[in-house]
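Side project, low priority. Logging it here so it doesn't get lost.
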Amino acid sequence: MVEHDEAAIIDTGLPKAQEIVDRVVELRPWLRAQQAAAERERRIPQESIERLDAAGVFGLTAPKRFGGADFTTRELHDILRALASGCGATAWMVWAAAGGNLWSFAFDEDAVAPVYEAPWTGNRTFAVAGTSRRMAGTARQVDGGWMIEGAWPFSTGRVHASHGYLAVFYDETDDTKLGMVLVPKESLVAWDDWDAMGMAATGSQTMATDGELFVPDEHFSTPKRLTERIGELTARGEGPRRGGLARSLVTGAGVALGMADHAMEVFLGAVGKRSIPYSP
C-alpha cells in the first residue's frame, strides 16, 4: 500500500527512520550472537530489549502525542527488514507489538494515557484480536464495566509488554458482538505452552484470566468505535497514517525479507570456501 499524502514531516526532535535503521545495523552482531540463547530461553533476552528500546525501536507506531514516530509504510518496512537480518524472532515480536499499538491507543484518553505515559522499557502492548471464539475470551456486562474470562493463544510480545489488547465476545449466540479490552498484563496469567520450532524466541505464550476479571467501562470498546476514533485522531494529526491492517501486513513483509537477507549473507560468505564437488 503506497501512501500519497506523505507531506514533509516537521522536525520534532524524534529520530528519523534512517537513524533507527543505522542503530539496528549496529546491533546486528549482538542480535545474531543472542539467537541461540533466545531460542533456548523462548524469549528475547532482556538486554536485547533494553538495547532496542534505547535505539527507539519500540516507538515505531506509538501515538505521536506520546512521543511515538510518524514513519511511512516504506520506512517501517525497512526498519523491520534491517532488524530481521539480525534476528527474525526479535523482528517478529517488534512487528507484532507495533501492530498492537495501531489499535490499542484508540481507547479514550483516560484509559490509554497511563499505558503510554508510564516509564517502561520495551513494547507497551501485546495484541490478540482474533475474530474466532477459539482465539478470544468472553465478556458479560456488570455495573461499571465487564467481567471477562478466557485464554488468548499466541500472545506475541507478552513477555515484555505492560498491557494486553484482547478480543472478547459479549453474546453467546452472535459472533458479530465482539469487544476489545485493554488490561494490565499483571492481571493475567501466562501458560508455559510455546514450543514452536524456529520461532520459540518470540515468547508467544497463551495468556489467560484466573477465573473472571473485572474490566472498567473505559477499558472496553468495539472495533467499530475504535475505528471511528482512529479516524478522528488521524484527521487531527494525532493518529497513525492511513492503512490499518493492510499497512501492518505490508510492513511485516520486511521480517521475511530481512531473514532472507541474512540467509543470503551466510550462503555467500561460505560458498567461496568450498570447492566444486567431483572436480580436480
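Brief comment: Residues 244-271 form the longest helix (28 residues).
Revisit when time allows.
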